[in-house]
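Researcher: Please predict.
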Amino acid sequence: MKRSLLLSVAVSLFLANFGMTQDMEEVFEPFPESQRELLVRGQFSDLEEALYGAIRKVVDGKTLEAILADERLMHWVTAAELIRLTGADHMEALYGRGQKYIRFLMVFLQDPEWMQLYLRAGLVPTNTEVGLRVLADIWAVDGQAKDFRNYLSLATGIASSWGAGRNAPRVQLAEHHPSPGKKCNPVWRYRFFKRSHQQEKLHPGFMKLQPWEIRFLVASGVDDASFQYCQDNINLPWEQYDGACWFANYKGGSDFGDSIHNGLLFYAPCSNDIGIVQKTVEQGGVCGALSTLGSIAAAARGIPSYTVGQPGHCAYAIRLKRGEWRGGFGGPIGGMKEYIFFDGLDPVSRDLMEAVFADDANVEQSYREASLARVLVAAGKDNLARAAWERAIKTAPLNAFFRQDYQQFIEERFLFSKKQWCDYACNLLNDFEGHGFAALEILKDLQPKFLEGQSDQTKLDYFAKVHKMLATTPMAWSIKPDGIFEFQTNMLQQPESCSKLFEIVLKQHFNKGDGALFGFALNWGVKQFVEQGQEEYFDRAFQAAVRMENRTSGSAPLDAKALSNNLGQAISGAEKARARGAFQTLSKFAAPFCHNESGPSVDQFDCPPGELASEGGFIMLSSYQRGRDRPCDHANVLAKKPGFLCTESQNNPFVMIELPQPIKMSGVLLVKARNNQDLIKNIKVSRSTDGATWYEVASTDNMPYQWKIVTPETPEVRWIKVESTKPDKNYLLMRNILVFKSER
């Protein structure tokens, strides 16, 4: 009784000292009496341990359902989880900043709804006071407004953006140490969006956005002035903001003669008092500047957006409706550089994030369950913690954070056998259909452990499930799945198992998705088998995949561009490896994706006498021009069809042809690619029986469009080489190289 009286006096003095009314004693009401004094004093480390102790006592004998239904208990759980994630030392540091922050912490810790909103903001500021400091700054200027709670999601999303994620260091730096015209202030952004909403300048869906979605509006490190400039000067129908980038001119040099690509030189003539977006509008820019303009223009109107890098290009995306992104300036086809979930900067993580957060009620429930699981772990209640984790994963099976924490919990306590881990992994693969690369990242450290010691057949069965899941997963340009193939190969013990794995991979990916993974698999097969002298394994697996596809009806059509690109890489890989069989097999499959290169038809070829002997032969180039060469068309170079090949620019580029069998050559016909007739002039043709010793057949310094060479007395030939003899670097581009044999 004496202790309670003393505490009551202490609370009253505390409230009076910080200008709070006695009615606000309810600040401390949710907490057990023994913890109130710790809260008043800002001793958050002790408070965290005290909360764990109180939770430990209260949960004894309770079911999980009863715990989750006990709102007072869940308030303790939420507060304990907030302290754990933020770090008690960081909360004590924030408390020590002064009255404003003390008042905020007292209010925030009594508000479980707001704390839970903060904890499920997608990315939670962890081991830092920044998130809570930003919330306190916003609360200090607007917390007393009657409509403040209507904008909790906005305030919380800004706090999450400032304290966590890839852009957090940029916005923090621009807040505290901005260069002229580059300030980023979280309170300004809160006021900007609140005022814009009240003035009906934002998209109608703005008030429905949750904190994880608010991040797409506010997390950019672009200066505050650019938001205001876009809103003042760019006003489009909502569905046209994917074209907002065109409010600036696309150009590579400014009006002052500077090149945009020369770093700071482009901005040297510009005023430092205006924002980056205004500079782009006034001076023009290339893709990076224009995509930033388009993204900020959308965000300034309350439309979620993000910029995305693509190979050689920058683009952006906007979202008018949850889960439905549309590209601006050629996007979004970007890719992930890291597996960072829920950060919104790449399509694979973005798609997973959209799936996890699709249902607000589900998200709220799953995060309550996960918070309870983490607190029960810290409180030493493992049985209840395991049940809470399993419940959270059942509610939100795609949440990568939940999965990783659950796996760590199980692994540290040795609760699963290898078989149980394998069963868990298979169930996860089923849950993650369409999100395969995220699933493999979650399982990355587990797979070697539960597969070690298993038979090759068990491993192959598991790998088949992996590739079945991957076949439904969208690809992005920066994903490099070679490591998946290498890991699986290294896990197998018997050489023939690698051949079986390759067959499984091809069967799973043939005519699935956009064809990209099938192309990567072919490249891997060339390296694994063809380049190692095991070409028969490659051919057998490929033919088995094709036969299986022929028995399957209703397959989705392939993305022609993606598949042709990857088939082209595989064909060039086969050429480099001198893998004739793989070259022929891949070229046959690539036939539907060949281009119709302009040039002579069958009856327009100026052929030498004799019978065509080069069709079905093999091509090798001195180098491969990735942006221009078309390996899918290489086989047609040797036939009376539209073919095409292109080397890199180099000294004496060449192409070598191996004929299907030795012949008595009667002549050669070379046909240029139409658009390069002036480029290809100095050409020499040579012959060989072994591909090593060469004899000149003919040469010219002024090759015509069709160059017919007749060789009536040529000895036996198996190889032909066509090379440029131009004295400086040059490309070699050809439409056809046709070799003829004597009919005698």
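Model: The first strand starts at residue 305 and ends at 310.
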